[in-house]
Amino acid sequence: MLDQTNLANLLEDPSLLLDKALVAGEWVAADSGKTFDVSNPARGDILTPVPDMSRAETARAIDAAYVAQKDWAAKTGKERAAILRKWYDLMIANADDLARILTAEMGKPFAEARGEILYGASFVEWFSEEAKRVYGETIPGHQPDKRITVIRQPVGVVGSITPWNFPNAMIARKVAPALAVGCAFVAKPAGETPLSALAMALLAERAGVPKGVFSVITSASSSEIGKEFCENPKVRKLTFTGSTEVGRILLRQGADQVMKMSMELGGNAPFIVFDDADLDAAVEGTMISKYRNNGQTCVCANRIYVQAGVYDAFAEKLAKAAAKLQVGDGLEDGVTTGPLINAKAVDKVEEHIADAVAKGAKVLSGGKRHELGGTFFQPTVLTGVTSDMMVTHDETFGPVAPLFKFEDEDDVIAQANDTIYGLASYFYARDLSRVTRVSEALEYGMVGVNTGLISTEVAPFGGVKQSGLGREGSSHGIDDYLEMKYICVSVQDAG
Ligand SMILES: NC(=O)C1=CN([C@@H]2O[C@H](COP(=O)(O)OP(=O)(O)OC[C@H]3O[C@@H](n4cnc5c(N)ncnc54)[C@H](OP(=O)(O)O)[C@@H]3O)[C@@H](O)[C@H]2O)C=CC1
Ligand SMILES: O=C(O)CCCC(=O)O
User: Whose CA is nearest to atom 9 of ligand 2?
Assistant: First the structure.
């Protein structure tokens, strides 16, 4: 049993565990002196208090960002790239410590947390490379004397609000493109998981990111910080990952300033298994897509549609695989599945299962709170799930695999698309025509074909419909942090 009573004792570099926030280049307490506690969801013990900041500290961070951004943008792409590359190297060098901090505050198993650190760092690496490629355009003039060029310039100061489920990667894939193109950045991480963000900011400082270019505001009053981002005229863009409900609030709040918005919101991912699929591969893909991060990702399979001919065999194999997951404290060896983030999340999972069972579904595996207590929950498989059940329309965000039975392709596509969401979707099939047809028919920003894991820094991550606006990652990931400027020059005759 590891001694986690003091997280700092588990770290090779204990200075990465911070209890101050980074505002305008200084590590400080809240003006009021108030703090709030960050706790370990696996054990319930308090890891450390952090400053409970308000609009005033946020405004100071924005002021500093506004000033610092000018010099940062004036550097060459190559100079910014070198600093980001150093930041990437430091994230890799400190990956174990960053992963321990992440597991302690969020709960995901250490190996998965380490995977997230590498994933987060990959965005810093990718965008350090893109910093040198912020290309413009030349357009043939519309009149003989006219020369037209298009340049792309940083939007300026960016505010970010991110959730607890990926405390490192969700910030990394926003701050990296922002800094790469010359923006300055003020981050507000989730109240549950600010420690990963603070550790990242310390490493950014060590890498040479200048004072004021990257601030991290810790606060238990997220709505107040959100208002400052939306109402302060020095902030030109807000980037958010979280629930669709909060995304709508922020879009409304930002409307008065007509600010640029990137939204990565909720999902309700369909995962379809056709009769011709490789069943074992489909089970493996479902396990990754459904139980990764204990079901707490916006791209997790939420509705699993299985064609009638393979339904029973698939359900049996999936239940067997789910029963093998090792639930426990993510810092213990061999654990594959941590706790849920909080009691509210457990209530939601229980509500979805109870509703499904009351309407006729059967629990094939799991179904209950785990004997470990706290917010641990048994990985669950439900059969006989139908469209009148809550799980059909609402993201469970937990370890519940609801299996729907379907007969034909048109019917399952209609069911898969019958949602306000459009983030990730998945299907398993071997028929090439079907693969093409179904990929085109799914109304989603991302489609995984014969794979349950689609996330990578090299591809554009994002949704359609009410799952969001904009894309993160890939060469497109910088677009939202840039403004286009068109310059028209009239060339006078030499004489
Ligand atoms: N797309 C995704 O990746 C995610 C989707 N979700 C979905 O949302 C559900 C609820 O999860 P939850 O964590 O409550 O998600 P929220 O959308 O409430 O929280 C995400 C982030 O937004 C902040 N926030 C909350 N309310 C406001 C506000 N009014 N103004 C500004 N910022 C705000 C939170 O801060 P703080 O935590 O400090 O309150 C957090 O940093 C989940 O069950 C899941 O369905 C959740 C997380 C991620
Ligand atoms: O849950 C999210 O918000 C993002 C999922 C992480 C990823 O796969 O990139």
Answer: 455
